């Protein structure tokens, strides 16, 4: 693995950047692989990394139709937390938070994980009941979460207005101190570099256009760069999962909708944590560059358009200014959208499909960035062994037939 000393960085600067080693290769696709992963977001790249590192499966290609990390991984607001309600969720998301805590060291790549605390605001009696239920359930599962009064919430996040005359007054908050943020691109880059160093081919500008199935078993994929045979195929394509599964002949219980976000002009450090308000529907943190990172809600209709919309912007900024009037004169810099794949119970699907040796990891909806390391880790196990890891065993596609849902939709109404 390439390491740079201060001298080599200075030498490269003086030689006009001619002798840099690329962080990963750009190989031509081989005719056949043991595993083809479709989608080079954090989950797909992480899956390839753990396949190589933990299961010794290195004859792997990650195929990406655009550029690495250009999907939701590079578009999200990077909130990391594990304070979900149900036992299954606590196990999955906390597995991830534990991996986040050591990820920079694991990858020898600074993913800038910053456990600055995620605070979820309560605005009414219903919120208080729901969040207290989360606090107690989380503690039973060994996941940190604590209840704060409005005054304690303000002490934790001084820019927060707790004016009781507000339309949606803050009446308390649930705080997960181990939650926080990370640098989204770095996660994709770190996993890509680690996978590449172990022999994985990361192939960009290679769209999968067909999935070959013979006798109920996957045999390969068709791509814009030719046919590739594969013993196993793993679809990790977020908002485009249902398109790919249709190619393999089955339908998924997913809806794809745009989710929008925006950032402000940069400013000096002023915002110490992450704050979310499900009721007024906005969430906020400050990036290391100084921009306020603001998340909005999903569009009301299914679509593959990655554009931002003025009405969502207005609604979100109204909510932010109600909570943080201090930012009323701050200008916004840019907005964008990403296509998220939403399941009926707002929990992911990680496992087998009706086609043998074809696996799927999807349905993360508005909240899968936080799960990147944990999801990739258990999915690599599933693909390598052909059966789920105990942590993702409940996250089957079948649950929508059997009714064994993991209903975080009803539990929280929002899942960033
Ligand atoms: C605005 C926004 C804010 C969000 N905020 C948060 C947050 O704060 N916290 C959180 O936990 N989550 C958040 N999320 C959700 C999170 O971003 C996703 O759940 C997560 O990044 C999904 O990662 P992924 O690797 O599965 O998908 P992606 O990063 O989308 O990767 C999938 C890849 O598959 C590729 N692909 C698709 N079709 C094909 C094909 N046919 N052939 C080849 N490649 C293909 C795509 O180009 C893409 O690069 C947010 C999402 C958005 C859009």
Would you kindly provide a written description of the structure presented here, covering whatever features stand out?
It is a single chain. This protein is an alpha/beta fold and 416 residues long. The chain has two domains: 24-76 and 184-253 and 345-412, 3-Layer(bba) Sandwich (FAD/NAD(P)-binding domain), CATH 3.50.50; 118-177 and 255-342, 2-Layer Sandwich (D-Amino Acid Oxidase, Chain A, domain 2), CATH 3.30.9. It contains twelve helices and 16 strands. Strands 1, 2, 6, 7, 8, 9, 15 and 16 form an eight-stranded mixed sheet that branches. An eight-stranded mixed sheet has the order 4-5-3-11-12-13-10-14. α2 (42-55) runs parallel beside α7, α2 packs across α10 and α3 crosses α10. The radius of gyration is 21 Å and the shape is globular. The chain starts with 5 loop residues before the first helix and ends with a helix. The relative contact order is 0.19. The mean pLDDT is 94. Flavin-adenine dinucleotide binds at residues 38-44, 63-66, 70-73, 75-79, 207-208, 236-238, 240, 244, 259-261, 295, 338, 340, 364, 366-370, 416.
């Amino acid at each position: 693995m390439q390491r740079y000393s201060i001298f080599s960085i200075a030498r490269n600067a003086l030689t006009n950047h001619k002798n840099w080693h690329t962080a990963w290769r750009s190989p031509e696709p081989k005719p056949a692989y043991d595993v083809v992963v479709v989608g080079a977001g954090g989950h797909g790249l992480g899956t390839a990394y753990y396949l190589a590192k933990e299961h010794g499966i290195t004859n792997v290609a990650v195929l990406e139709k655009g550029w690495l990390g250009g999907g939701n991984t590079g578009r999200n607001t990077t909130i990391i937390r594990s304070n979900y309600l149900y036992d299954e969720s606590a196990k999955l998301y906390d597995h991830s938070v534990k991996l986040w805590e050591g990820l920079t060291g694991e990858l020898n790549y600074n993913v800038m994980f910053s456990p600055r605390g995620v605070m979820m605001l309560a605005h009414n009696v219903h919120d208080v009941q729901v969040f207290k239920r989360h606090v107690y359930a989380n503690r039973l599962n060994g996941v940190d979460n604590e209840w704060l009064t409005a005054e304690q919430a303000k002490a934790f996040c001084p820019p927060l207005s707790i004016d009781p005359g507000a339309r949606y007054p803050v009446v308390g908050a649930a705080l997960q101190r181990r939650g926080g943020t990370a640098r989204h691109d770095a996660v994709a880059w770190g996993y890509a570099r680690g996978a590449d160093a172990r022999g994985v081919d990361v192939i960009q500008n290679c769209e999968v256009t067909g999935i070959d199935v013979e006798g109920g078993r996957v045999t390969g994929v068709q791509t814009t760069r030719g046919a590739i045979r594969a013993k196993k195929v793993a679809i990790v394509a977020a908002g485009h999962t249902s398109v790919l599964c249709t190619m393999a002949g089955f339908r998924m219980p997913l809806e794809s909708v745009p989710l929008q976000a925006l950032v402000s002009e940069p400013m000096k450090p002023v915002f110490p944590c992450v704050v979310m308000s499900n009721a007024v529907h906005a969430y906020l943190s400050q990036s290391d560059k100084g921009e306020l990172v603001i998340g909005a809600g999903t569009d009301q209709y299914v679509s593959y358009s990655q554009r931002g919309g003025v009405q969502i912007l207005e609604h979100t900024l109204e909510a932010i200014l109600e909570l943080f009037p201090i930012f009323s004169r701050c200008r916004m810099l840019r907005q964008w959208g990403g296509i998220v794949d939403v399941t009926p119970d707002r929990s992911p699907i990680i496992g087998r499909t009706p086609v043998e040796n074809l696996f799927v990891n999807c349905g993360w909806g508005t909240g899968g960035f936080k799960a990147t390391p944990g999801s990739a880790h258990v999915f690599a196990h599933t693909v390598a062994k052909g059966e789920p890891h105990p942590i993702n065993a409940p996250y089957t596609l079948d649950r929508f037939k059997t009714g064994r849902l993991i209903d975080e939709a009803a539990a929280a109404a929002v899942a960033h």
